[in-house]
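Researcher: Here's my situation. A collaborator sent me these components and asked whether they could plausibly form a single complex. I don't have experimental data yet, so a predicted model of the whole assembly would be a useful starting point for our discussion.
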Amino acid sequence: MKAENNILEIKNLAIGYKETGILADGINLTLKKGELTGLIGLNGIGKSTFLKTLLKLNNPLEGQVLFEGKNIKLLDSNRVALLCSYVSTEHIRVSEMIVYELVAIGRYPYTGWNGKLSGKDKSIVEEALWQVGLEKLMNRKIMQLSDGERQRASIARALAQDTPIIILDEPTAFLDIKNRYEIIHLLKRLCLEKEKAILFSSHDLGNLMQVADKLWIINNSSISEGAPEDMVLSGLLEEVFSSEDLLFNPESGIFLERKESSKEIKLSGEGNKYFWTKKAIERIGFSVSTKEGISEVQIVNGVNNGFILKIPNNENVEFSSIYDLLRQIKRINL
Amino acid sequence: MFFIELFIGSVSISFKEIFNIVFLGISENEANTTIIADFRLPKIITAIVVGIALAVSGLQMQAIFRNPLAGPYVLGISSGAGLGVAILLLSSGWLFNETNFSFLGNWAMVLAAWLGSGIVLFLVLLVSIRVKDVLTVLILGIMFGAAISSLVNILQFFSDQQSLKSYVVWTMGSLGGVTKSQLAVLLPSVIIGLFLSILSAKMLNALLLGENYAKSMGVNVLKARILVFAGASILAGTVTAFCGPIGFVGIVVPHIARIIFRTSNVFTLIWGSSLIGALFMLMSDLLSRIPGSDTVLPINSVTAIIGVPVIIYLVIKKFKFES
């Protein structure tokens, strides 16, 4: 592993506030070029404080943050702005500002006293708009953008700042599933194509498991790092997120409610239809078994009424949808 | 607007004569020359300068506090100036006798107001160095203002009728009291204030996104605050010193500029607000003279009568837009 890939190193860092005390300490981590790193942890555990400390927006209580080997404490804010850009959780609300203007503000560290954009600045701004797919909306007022478009515009502003590191604080909060997926994959693409080191906090474990090169998990006043799969194997994800009511499933990377399922039902069939019927039956509190002599749901592929409910000593009933099937199961209270 | 203003006054002077006096400096009638050169022209220039200064300082306050209802006086500048004037008028009984007061009085009032707003500015700057959150600075500024106003009230309570009347007249604002020699001080001060605001415009553009974003792009927030507060205070403080507190111009004009120029760019808005501010003051001055009579309304009332409906319109429009 080459050391020059380490664009950011964190050594024995302690974060928090003098007034309220330490949130986490003994933090030793590295951020590498071309890698997407996800920061996870429960609400209020210090994710934003940690990110702000890396950006020199908060002071560390102890330890060092090194950009390319240089302590940020000794770098002035303009130098930090050339190394690291930021997308915060704050909504940007400026009436009359258009997307292009917002992205162009990202050129702040490069322009003169009057903020005039040079030809090079303009082409970088346009490139950033194109990267996030907003080139057609560049004259739109930012107050008229959807949440997803606004987040893209914020990311484009960070891209225009042209820094090797981008830090984002919950870029997928407030977004719908489609936009969440697209934003995270946009970040992944930027890491690969532009060799950037991107760090972002998120609660979206499902997407993180798919795309993150590395996870940083804040837990018990400390931060651990590793590939998402390492975190599953070491049991850390389960330790952080499982509770009395929730069970983390390492196989699928999703959470399930802990439920005692005493009632059993037999399910036969195959394919997609089988998979989703199984999920649905489990959702209403049954466990699926292969035992003989109990109630059974048979899945027939390729017909309209493909869900057949067979109850011993009763007539078979056919259903056309999972919804109707579940209603019947609930009604007769198997 | 400029020419209409020259034309209107209690003595009617022909257009041709005005033209000759302003552009050629010649006239057969000495009295008319005096009226134009020493009264009407300085007043018009004062109106323009006051409009520009108040509009730009209001724009800066709205930008740095990210609050559409901030104006040049939110930091307590006008109360500071008011305190200076009140102290002067109360103590004037000992310092001046009747004859030299009217002579020195005008300049003394200007200096007292300047000193008062300068001290408030200094306190606000001290606070803004210690306090991180800009909204806290805003609240402290308003509290400062309230405390100083109550001090002024106490002073008024103990002052005699003559001083009280002088003070009340001062609070109504006036463009007409500025002499040519005072204009020679007002003009350069406003130019310095404008220069500072242009210097801070790039930082204000970045600060529109919020302080964290601005810092992450390399903005030195403390430097920005000092530059903006100093610039805005010089602009508003000087105007208040010479003309008294003139309300609403600073709040309303930046909004009109935003609507007309359809931009949030502070550079553009400085020029836009200057233009509209100057027009706003000229129009207010015109309206302050009741047609066909020699009575002149207090300028402060006129700007309020024009300004308040605009603010109400803006608030209602914004409310509709967001709900």
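Model: Some features of this prediction you could bring to your collaborator: The radius of gyration of chain B is 20 Å. Chain B has a mean pLDDT of 83.
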